[in-house]
């Protein structure tokens, strides 16, 4: 939701991302909570993730080269200078977490997931 909001401030992502998730700061960096009952269910989190992903794909389908290379209004909050860079960083970020999960599975003696 954060990157999509950077790409289209005030867009439809605000209708999908639950306000309680924002207010509780459960998903902000360095704010984990040990009580898993405070977090949404996996099904709920997946539903929101899938909706946000669909909005991002819609945005990308409409974006032309000029849109992708236009500097972000707020300088990308230090994350990315342009939408194209933000998309690349998001892909890298997903790969980073996939690697973390792979290493965790190996450390626990579990078979690879893929």
Can you give a write-up of this model?
The protein has 114 residues and is mostly helical. The protein contains 6 helices and no strands. The protein has helices spanning 2-7, 13-16, 19-24, 42-62, 65-69, 83-107. The radius of gyration is 16 Å and the shape is globular. The two termini are 27 Å apart.
Short structural summary:
The protein is mainly alpha-helical. It has 6 helices and no strands. The protein starts with a helix and ends in a 7-residue tail after the last helix.
Bulk shape: globular
- Number of H- or I-type helical stretches: 6
The quaternary organization reads as: single chain
- Largest sheet report: none
How many beta strands in the DSSP annotation? 0
Could you estimate the helical fraction of the residues in percent?
Answer: 55-70%
Class based on secondary structure composition and strand pairing: mainly alpha
Task: List SSEs in N-to-C order.
Answer: HHHHHH
Q: What's the overall average pLDDT, rounded? A: 84
Classify the beta-strand content into a percent band.
under 5%
Low-pLDDT ranges: none
Q: What radius of gyration results from the CA coordinates?
A: 16 Å
Q: Alpha-carbon distance between the termini?
A: 27 Å
Task: Give the helix/strand layout.
Blueprint: H1 2-7, H2 13-16, H3 19-24, H4 42-62, H5 65-69, H6 83-107
């Amino acid at each position: 939701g954060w990157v999509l909001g950077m790409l289209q401030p005030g867009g439809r992502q605000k209708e999908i991302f639950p306000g309680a998730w924002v207010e509780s700061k459960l998903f902000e960096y360095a704010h984990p909570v040990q009580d898993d009952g405070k977090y949404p269910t996996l099904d709920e989190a997946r539903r929101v993730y899938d909706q946000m992903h669909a909005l991002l794909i819609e945005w990308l389908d409409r974006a032309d080269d000029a849109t992708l290379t236009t500097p972000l209004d707020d300088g990308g909050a230090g994350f990315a200078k342009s939408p194209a860079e933000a998309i690349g960083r998001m892909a890298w970020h997903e790969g980073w977490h996939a690697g973390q999960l792979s290493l965790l599975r190996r450390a626990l003696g579990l078979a690879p997931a893929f």
